[in-house]
Design a protein that fits this description.
Number of helices: 13
Largest sheet: 5 strands, mixed
Shape: globular
Order of helices and strands: HHEEEEEHEEEEHHHHHHHHHH
Helix content: 40-55%
Strand content: 5-15%
Length: 290
């Protein structure tokens, strides 16, 4: 028997919230890589005191966007990072890596070090593939499986603490406590909040939510501007998806009003829209909230 009416809308909300959570993992890693380029370059290339110039991540031709690109002028090299939560993708990851390489080399004409970082432990053979091999075309790239990585160097850099939570350990709770203690020692408040958010989100790939809350300060996370931004972006996507499904295309002027809503108002709209039947219901609701 199919799902109909309000139950279908509730089901839709749950599905989209799950999708948003999955997307959040990659978005968190992009944020870390863009906000802390030196941490990633020094970790992956084992270098210190190096000049780094972040590059635009959108590549030419039919646009595709990489996760992080750094130009290292004194090495005459580009470092390209891709974060993966789910091993499979379309097109397949090896083909994507070749596509990235060709576009980058065409534009910058210099050596390119490509690193794929897999976040979630899996037995999929895809995470052990480190090259594209088709006929006479061989294109290698480097693969980092975080669950095999020593957490020690990651624990030494605040920007890499969210990745340390996913590193190799025989005592996961001890590692969680180590990361939490390191976060507590970050002096700058906003950085501490943002690193806490990133750690809490990535920790969901490995730990039970109740266990996470035993070690990480939930109030610290909720105070973070980054958390509010992620939360509001996710809620907006859910609301627009459901409104378009229930009422048809939403005009730009209404979209603009919805985008100005706070997180609390978006949550209220998620519940209220279950009772909407025409666009006037949405207009009336917005007039009452603005």
């Amino acid at each position: 028997m199919g799902i109909t009416g309000d139950r279908a809308c509730i089901y839709e909300i749950l599905i989209w919230q799950l999708i948003i959570i999955l997307l959040a993992y990659d978005n968190i890693c992009r944020y870390l890589a863009q906000a802390y380029p030196f941490a990633f370059v020094s970790w992956l290339l084992n270098v210190e005191d190096i000049e780094i110039q972040p590059l635009p991540t959108e590549l030419s031709l039919e646009p595709i966007r990489s996760d992080a690109l750094y130009l290292l002028p004194n090495r005459g090299q580009i470092l390209h990072l891709e974060f993966q939560t789910i091993p499979s993708s379309s097109p397949p990851l090896p083909l994507r890596m070749l596509d990235y390489w060709v576009r980058l080399y065409r534009k910058y004409d210099c050596p390119i070090e490509q690193v794929v970082i897999f976040l979630k432990q899996t037995k999929s053979p895809i995470v052990y593939v480190e090259q594209l091999a088709v006929g006479r075309t061989i294109h290698p790239y480097r693969v980092v499986r975080l669950w095999e990585e020593d957490p020690t160097p990651l624990l030494e850099n605040p920007a890499l603490l969210p990745l340390a939570i996913l590193a190799r350990t025989d005592t996961p709770e001890v590692l969680l406590r180590q990361v939490a203690d390191k976060i507590d020692s970050i002096e700058e408040r906003e950085e501490q909040q943002n690193i806490s958010v990133c750690t809490e989100i990535l920790a969901r790939l490995k730990f039970n939510k109740n266990l996470i809350r035993q070690f990480l300060q939930e109030d610290l996370m909720r105070e973070s501007p980054l958390y509010q931004e992620i939360l509001q972006e996710g809620e907006l996507k859910v609301v627009f998806r459901l409104l378009n499904r229930k009422l048809g295309n939403i005009e730009p002027n209404l979209q603009s009003k919805i985008q100005q809503l706070s997180s609390e108002q978006l949550e209220a709209l998620e519940e209220a829209l279950l009772d909407f039947s025409v666009k006037q219901d949405l207009i009336n609701w917005l007039e009452n909230y603005q």
